[in-house]
Amino acid sequence: MSKAMSQTIPISFTLNGRLQELEVEPHELLLDVVRDRLGMTGAKRSCDVQVCGACTILVDGRPLSACTTLAFEVRGKSVLTIEGLADDGKLHPLQEAFIEHGGFQCGFCTPGMILASKALLDENPSPTEEYLKHFMHGNICRCTGYKKIIESIMAAAKKMRA
Amino acid sequence: MLRRFRLEEPGSVSEATELLGRFGESAKVYAGGTELLLAMKEGLVQYERLVNIKKLRLNEVARDNGAIRIGALCTHHQLEQSALLQQTLPALVKLENNVANVRVRQAGTLGGNLCFAEPHADPGTLLMALDAKMIAEKGGSKRAIAAQDFLVDAYETSLGADELLTAIEVPVPAPRSGIAYLKFGYLERPSVGVAVAITVNGGTVSQARVAVGCAGPAPKRVAEAEALLQGKSTDEATRNLARAGEIAGKASQAISDLHGSQDYKEHIVGVLLKRAFQAALAQC
Q1: First to last CA, chain A
Q2: In B, which residues are within 8 Å of A70 by CB distance?
Q3: For the segment B152-165, what is each residue's pLDDT rounded down to a tens digit?
Q4: Confidence check on the interface: ipTM exceeds 0.85, yes or no
């Protein structure tokens, strides 16, 4: 690789509420930066083609596939991974509901499931089950624990409305 | 794994098209990246430079005389949420709400979807039935390309290498029009998509447009199927649906692949054409 090709972009953004300032190369993927450079390993690389949702993170509150997002794109934005969801050690109602209702088996899809459902409930605090299924259609659980995942999200929604 | 590339971030359309002209095939336009980055990660394509056009602010949906002008950088999410589109083109809102999944809709742009020309994409088919025009710019000049002339083959458009798609213009449908886009598939992307747009006046189908997509290399308008519906009474048009469906099936240039055999896709085109016509008629 010739020297002329290398390029770095200074970016600053918040990751789980903390300001990060670093230099990235244009081709660096957000998933690699977050996992390998910043140590947040909750987002998983799985399908690598935006189908499965295991790498879901929230950027300014909306879900993105970190596996197919260039890292420089989050400059000036707020990034949330599963590690930042609990508030000072207190679990988010969605996390509590997933535990209480058995919303995970192997756990590999869980960070993505919980972050996608957070975006869902932030947008629509009272989703119908049909709307929930439509919104979560792109998050795959290979253990096929969908029924309990849906129950967990609906229970969290109810708790958060109360 | 992505290979290294340089990033250019032009501040104007002319700057962007100048860069595309200067770097030719070694550079590619980058917007949402939902298709391009996948192809680059797979090593199917490789570029020395990506030209990020997101600073160009081509992301408005606005009414412009008798048309709705959609900025090429509007994301699918923005379009599924647009109140103006909900009022004027609800069929497009429904289509956008069913593109891929919530993360792809968040990042992917309508312009990018059209320019990448993935054969299994939804929007091109409906935009053909809506008689949409693609606005291409280069330097200070501008031209309009009809949707059916824009999408020419799999991964191929009629956009010049140094032209930029800046907007999509969709005529506001006439009163008593009905529009439906239906798709079917069992993999991540649809096997078949069919769009029907009709206008009914005094019990006669005064205007009919039919487009089929996903089954073959690129979406197609099907004039021969339209002729079986246009100018006919709604009853006669309804009786002609089976024949129109057969014709549209053949016109889809369906290929046998993982998404289904040629025969299967041709059959599904006929089924969807009938249902789309009935759904459109119910709106008139």
Answers
A1: 58
A2: 33, 37
A3: 999 999 999 999 99
A4: yes
Residue B160 CB coordination number (10 Å): 13
Q: Is residue A16 within 8 Å of A83, Cβ to Cβ?
A: yes
What does the pLDDT look like over B212-256, one tens digit per residue? 999 999 999 999 999 999 999 999 999 999 999 999 999 999 999
Does any CB of chain B come closer than 8 Å to the CB of residue A38? no
Residue B205: count other Cβ atoms within 10 Å of its Cβ.
Answer: 26
Give the best residue of B73, B97, B103, B120 to mutate against chain A (max A CB count within 10 A). B103
**Overall size of chain B counted in residues:** 284
Chain A residue numbers touching B41 (CB-CB < 8 A):
48, 68
Tokens for A121, please give them.
């409930």
Phi then psi for B145, rounded to 5 degrees?
-120, 125
Find the CB nearest B4 among A25, A29, A69.
A25
Rounded CA gap, B118 and B190, in Å?
A: 11
What residue type is B40 in one-letter code? M
Q: Which residues in chain A are contacts of B2 at CB distance < 8 A?
A: 27-29
Whole-prediction pTM? 0.96
**Residue A130, phi then psi, degrees to nearest 5:** -65, -45
Cα distance between residue A120 and residue A123, in whole Å: 5
Of A154, A125, A25, the C-alpha closest to B1 is: A25
Q: Which residues of B touch A50 (CB under 8 A)?
A: 34, 38, 100-101, 103-104
Residue B233 structure tokens: 């009474």
